[in-house]
Amino acid sequence: MRKKLFIPGPVEVREEVLKEMSKPLFGHRSKEASHLQREISNKLQRLMYTNNGILLSTSSGSGLMEGALRSCTAKRAAIFSCGAFGERWYEMALANQVRADLFEVEYGKPIRGEMVKKALDSARYDLVTITHNETSTGVMNPLAEIADTLREYPEVVFCVDAVSSLGGVKIPVDELGIDICITSSQKCIGLPPGFSFCSISEKALEAARGVKYRGVYFDLLKLHEYKMKKDFQYPFTPSLSHMFALDSQLDSIMAEGLDNRFRRHKVMAEQVQRWAKDKFSLFPEEQFASTTVTCISNTHNINIAELNRGLAEAGFVISNGYGKLKEKTFRIAHMGDMTVEDIEELLSAIDHLLITGGIYTHA
Ligand SMILES: *Cc1c(COP(=O)(O)O)cnc(C)c1O
Question: Which residue of 32, 37, 149, 321 pairs with 113 in a disulfide if CB–CB is 3.0 to 4.6 A?
């Protein structure tokens, strides 16, 4: 039976968008390919509130994260982490011999501007990475506050992992001074997985010019230069099928209206948070609870795997906690094209199982 996805990626993809993926192809060196990629880039600039260039990547978002870190760090990266995806940046730095330091906060807590300031005052760093929305803990970091802090360090390249927030929450890239803002297709954008994109500033490109070994496939400078020279094309064969879907999805997003889309995400988040506080409790500090995914403390010690088995019969799936938070927490995603009605259906199905489902580990 088909299960509606309430997991933080991949999300539900609308039927019309899936159909776009099956359109007949054309060559990636054709005029049509240039036109398509130019159109998408223009639309993404609107979605991201930026005049910076856009890079399209036939990879999931982690590819661009690794590319950003490796291409643009000449000196040393300061990596701020409040969960598993923050730690991923650090793992990437180590594996690429990018010099980096990890600054961590306890799971459930956010990264604050003050913490960033303290680290940058040492003048050791030329690149900073921030996870905007930490999908593993359900924390949405205060990006505006962090951006304000970073304004005091104009030489530092500001990289943001916006994989699980861009498209569901307003991220005014230029206003915030973000140099590289990365997202994946399969979260708030509402597409199948396997594609990602980022904005990249002149400052980030200039930083990359000072880095000798930037790899090949994710050399962001090379991607940019190739794109400029070859009318929005890329050096490697891209997934045009994803691009058909992305182009059409961006039209749908604009038709919904960005403000309406962001408001819908807010309403869904409030709905799930209200339920979570009533039935369980929120894992993150409430003030920083995410607008796109809610991480719920398993205060009744229910069996999450069992809960999902029950939900599957009703046609739904949610997420267990991530990594060391497994069974201690569970997560409900409310992102992409999901509606308030979808959330209501899910929550009543969970409520039903809480009463009848035999999902309590300890009776
Ligand atoms: C999902 C996710 C990623 C990983 O993205 P992929 O597209 O799977 O590479 C990175 N960061 C955050 C915050 C995520 O939610």
Answer: 149
